[in-house]
Specification:
It is a multi-pass membrane protein. This is MFS transporter. The protein is mainly α and 385 residues long. The chain contains 18 helices and no strands. The longest helix is centred in the last third of the chain and has 53 residues. The mean pLDDT is 84.
Length: 385
Amino acid sequence: MPAIPIPLFALAGFTTGAGMRMLDPLLPLVAAGFGVSVAEATALVAGFVLPYGLVQLLAGPLGDRLGKVRVVTAAVLLYGAGLLASPLATQLGGLVALRAWCGFCAGAVIPLLMAHIADSVPYAGRQVAISRFLTGMVMAQLLAGPVSGVLAQVAGWRAPFLVLGLLALGVGGVLAARLGPALWRGEGDAAGGRGMAAYLDLLRKPSGRWLMAVAFLDGFLLFGGAFPFTGSFLIEVFGRNAAQAGLVVAGFGLGSFAYTRMARPLLGRFGERGLLTLGGCGLALLLAVLALAPAWPVVAAAQVALGLAFYMFHGVLQTLATEALPEARGTAVGGFALALFLGQGAGSLAFGLGLTAIGYRGGFAVAAAGVLALALWARRGARVG
């Protein structure tokens, strides 16, 4: 297979990451456009993340068998087509269906590219290499909110879907061109892959079961339970508009980007177990800050620190996933992503329902307590150095 630079992989990750985070400041606008409540519009979050996770059942084994980058290229192109169709939706149900299609296609991209990088990089340098690749995902967190918010303010909520769809098709086209004839050859880039049976191999290992459980709770409490609703929190509690909320949410990306530059010294100073502890406890503290925030600048400052703390914690888990089943890395990383995003889907539904009972602040407080317990359990159960 032709050598493809990590920055191009990072750009592919950017497109899918932006698709996931673009709705953060848009939920109130989409809800108003379709005449529904914000709580009802949260179906758009679950509609993306549940297929994103479920597709791992197919994408991991398929990538191990046919070639990880080949599967990613097809997925990015199909994802772009779904984004371009999204502005045509006239009802919330139609948009949820298109979000589900986009999530299904996007779900193959990050896990398979991480597994592809892990096939090529020894474990000692893998977390740093993966952090370079994750720059694309981090930049999506940094830019997707403000750009989609500004576009929506100027041209309506449908405009961000159109712009991102064109970008995704362009990235998919470049990947296809770089692969050249290898795009059409049925060569797997992993030594074996036992198909769906590899998931059983993963679950037979105590460390594999631990990793899947931690990933599910990570997704439930953070990806689904807290992070997607910060934009709506800023709009409905502090009176910010969509563009302003997007800029504040983008602070998470600043902290995440700092992690990608600091991964090597942080790992050398604290080790993987130390990063799990510091990152997890930091997340819990910062979510408590959100729950008590008296003004929106406090939320803005917390967002930056949340980005750094999250990747200190989550980055270790991702690296462990690449070594959970070396003979079928696509399947192993796919299983990790499946657990993560099943948790995210469940968390987004639970948080959406909880809004009516305990409000945003109560939800952030519950997430803070849960993340603290998760961090302590992760440190105790992790088999890292």
